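Run log // design_07
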């Protein structure tokens, strides 16, 4: 089981491009045609990817996410997308602290288990 799944962010192993030839989740959400070189297509499928991209778009914006991914080497982009999704979904759950609130809770658990 992946670490992110343990933390309650189960992506269901569905971060990946559309296999049916339809638009990726990002283009589907943005209501635009998914072109061949779409930066989001390999990472946001047309099913769950739409919901994940909606969270990323709400927090970071499509343009900023696209610019960020283009600056990252291709072999590291999947980790970046998973991190963007995690942070965006955490921010949706806790608008004030986001993923930092989860880190504080984990730190508190460690502190309590030591004492």
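design_07 sequence
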């Amino acid at each position: 089981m992946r670490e992110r799944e343990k933390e309650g962010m189960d992506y269901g192993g569905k971060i990946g491009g559309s296999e049916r030839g339809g638009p990726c989740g990002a283009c589907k959400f943005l209501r635009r045609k998914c072109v061949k070189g779409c930066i989001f297509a390999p990472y946001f499928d047309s099913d769950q990817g739409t919901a994940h991209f909606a969270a990323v778009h709400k927090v970071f914006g499509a343009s900023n996410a696209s610019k960020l991914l283009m600056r990252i080497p291709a072999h590291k982009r999947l980790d970046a997308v998973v991190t963007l999704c995690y942070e965006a979904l955490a921010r949706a759950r806790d608008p004030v602290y986001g993923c930092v609130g989860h880190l504080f809770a984990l730190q508190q658990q460690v502190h309590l288990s030591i004492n």
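The mean pLDDT is 84.
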